[in-house]
Amino acid sequence: MTGMNENPGALIPELLLLAGAVLGVLLGSWLPRHRQWLVRLLAAGVTVAGLAAAAASMTRPAELVFGGSYVVDTATHAARLVVLAATLLALGLSVDTVAGHRRETEYYVLLQLGALGTIILAGANDLLLLFAAFLLASVPFYALVGWAKDARAVEAAMKYYLTGAFLGVTTLVGVAVLYGAGGSTAYPLLRDGLAAGPTAAAGVGLVAVFAGLLFKIGAVPAHFWVPDVTDGTPPPVAAIVTTIPKIGGLIAAYRLLLEAIPPEAVDWPLLIAVLAAASMTLGNLAAFFQTSVQRLLAYSTISQVGYALMAVAVAGRAELALPALLFYVAAYAVTNLGAFAVVAELPRARALDDYRGLARRHPGLAAVLVVCLLGLVGTPPTAVFVGKLTVFTAAVDGGFAWLAVLAVINTIASVFYYLRWIAPAFLSPAPAPDSPALAPAALWSRIGAYVAAVASLVLGIVSGLVLPLGTGGLGAS
To answer: What is the pLDDT of residue 429?
Structure first.
């Protein structure tokens, strides 16, 4: 690793997102409403440029920047690529909902700021930067959830904000406790300090800080906001808040535990394993009898986070832990966005029964739905199948075979509620031609659905080439 520096060139993807948000605000304040699409074009251009810069930066050695508070390494590279790709896909599936709206500019700006906070969350190497990134990855999404300004969206935004505010304060208290116990906020120094400090304070501080990260990823016991927020917002917004923040939150949790918290001070592997088991089980059980498609996807999200936390639980104990986590978040992102793209394309089909006859009315969308829902189950050759297989292997290698067995049981059980959505689409007769339930929105959501489904399949097929890219480890290791 290179020495600590203050090289802005190491942060080109982050700076591009920031520039896109600032220029978007300025551009949108001068443009008439019917030309707000230029802000969307700017956001898409910035995201594509960020992807190119992130790909180019992968050839550089890992480095600490800005006093060691931010690390650019394998995990940060992966977070950049996945978050930017997810943001670009989210922009596409949002067009039909957002185009021409009087707050169209604000939508794109908030999305970029939230994506920026998510990336910084993944690369934070200091507790203070971690908390700053937590705020940047939260506040824009609070506003985005309430963007529609109808009764459901406002209620969802208030629940999201109040939960985040409470757990944000809890996180800040945890930062103070860890600083007092370890004598530093920088991860490497904090690890040394906590190893020699009081274990009770280390445990309390970790639980408090981790509460904020659990909120970001929507895991038990900080999951209460997920179903109400997901069901109360337009499908594109629900897709964003159930996908993008989780990428940075999971990587941040992995980095914090491995780099800053010595296991001899706090038995965090067991703690995370229990949280993973609770998340996957509760998410699956709660999804069984849901009739709302967005609430079903919300509980599915909670269960998927449980699987991803398995890799976090074996951080530093299994060689496959980091590659498994990075690949899983990428696989989950494209697959979850694909499922929500179908929902966005059929905005009037809010219940499972509304999808009756989808295969006859819209066979392409029905195929995407099958790929994405069975992909979330973990059916080959989709990307989530490879992700789950790798995560389960890492859990066994890390000494949590019981957790892998429980995850397999939950995976089998999840087939039930996904089939409750797929079955009406294929087995029920087609509705009347003039039925509004399956009336499509427009072109862009459909394109987003097809792109996501293809990406899920391709990522699974080429997983043998992608997985080794995540074996570089964290920069401080």
So the answer is: 74
